Amino acid sequence: MSESARLTGPVSGGTRGWPMSTTLVDVSTYGYVEEEYFFEGDATTYRLADGELRADGRWTAEPSDTHPFKTRMIIRRPVDAAKFNGTVIVSWINVSMGSDMFQLDTPETFEGGFAVVAVSAQAVGVHGFDTASPQGLVSWDPERYGSLAIPSDDASYGIFTAAAQLVGPKRDLGANDPMGGLDVKRLLATGASQSAARLHTYFNAVQPLTNLFDGFLLDVHFGWVAPLSTENASREPNLQGVVDLFQPVTRLRDDLDIPVLVVNTETETPTYFRVRQPDTEMFRLWEAAGTAHASSSSIQEVMIKFERDWGTSLPASPTLDRPSPNTVNLRPLRDASLFQMQRWLTEHIPPPAQPRIEIGGEPPTVVRDANGIARGGIRLPTVAVPTAKLTGSSGSANLIENLPGSSEPFSPETLKTLYPTRELYLEKVEKAVSAGIAAGFILPRDAARIMLEAESSATP
Q: Is the separation of the CB atoms in 379 and 386 below 8 Å?
């Protein structure tokens, strides 16, 4: 099944002079280049052939129509072919803020030798939510992006397929090869949050028809799925509209010979709990206790990009009576997940199975220890050796308000009880780092940085 999209680029110019949501990292220091391309064609749309959204994920889909589109992709790749590990990460750009927000620039993407392709697959990314908040590409830089158009998110699955074909092993190796002649061996589909929901749908419905991707990595995934087709307006009017479009949780299908890793924080666990499935040779679920969907470090990165791209600060949400955002940095876990996925794809060694967060009661609720931290799950060093009560919820009844989680520092008395001496605290952190490396959710190169952060902290 071919989308037969046409590629133009690299793209330059425009009023702003840079691609929206481009990385904050100087990629040249890693021997990488980052370029933007446009691609256009007729995107296939899909429908359920039997109308049944089966809870086991084994959907039967079929093409329904085609729609013309033109959008963009950002490509980040090694300049030296010898550094390339053969895997292209094809990332579904998140649009929950009403514009593209692409963040896949962790150290492992560079040091592991991956190429990364970020795809603007959704109408919101190109056009924004609506005329009242037109934060899409077209409004951000009309000179650069004015020719882009996506009719509706029904076309998003076909657009994502078209992008993968343009960068995959069977792409046209002509004069305008966006991969610079790299020997691409495999494609890894990734997406976070609402993009993970769309990839869940792609995996269940479209992957069996296209067979394009060699693996899927879903990040901070609530277990929701997005609709294959809608009869609504061409794009959701706001962030709540994005959430409202999602369907009830269903499983990822288990009849495809394709590795799937889901990496979740505590925030998603009470929802994803309903579709947990056992680890197999083709499926792994990682759940990190004491972590949040949008921690303070990820919020800070978004704010810096927003200020650079828009020339103004990100509008602040009301903070009255809300705890401080969760402070646990997920970057080491995300880097480890990429390393483990590459090994899974190339050596057929699944990521190490990890304990899951304990859930009890109805509705399902996270079970907590004496310090108020979730029991079970992956325990990053800042959670295994805590200096604060760390949760994946702010305590709000509103899902969106809960995304930052919470961090409440322990009292001096509690810290003294837990860690009578600073030496004992650092010894416990070192043991937690070693345990994480042995368990496979921390890479050895992160050990020194984690210890340095612990040594430079003011407490305990």
A: no
CA separation for the pair 112, 117 (Å, rounded): 15
pTM of the model: 0.94
pLDDT in tens, 137-154: 999 999 999 999 999 999
pLDDT value, residue 234: 40
How many Cα atoms within 13 Å fall on the side-chain side of residue 132?
3
Domain boundaries, the chain: 6-382
CATH number of 6-382: 3.40.50
Residue-wise burial string across 86-98, b where 16 or more C-beta atoms lie within 10 A, e elsewhere: bbbbbbbbbbbbb
Cβ atoms 348, 452 nearer than 8 A: no
Cis before 386 (ω within 30): no
**What are residue 335's DSSP bridge partners?**
none
Please write the tens of the pLDDT for every residue from 340-363: 999 999 999 999 999 999 999 888
Residues 6+ away with beta carbon under 8 Å from 413? none
**DSSP string computed for 129-180:** S-TTS--SHHHH-HHHHTT-B---GGGHHHHHHHHHHHHSTTS--STT-TTT
| Integer Cα distance of 338 and 334 in angstroms | 6
What six digits make up the tokens of 138?
């077209």
Provide the residue type at 195 as one letter: S
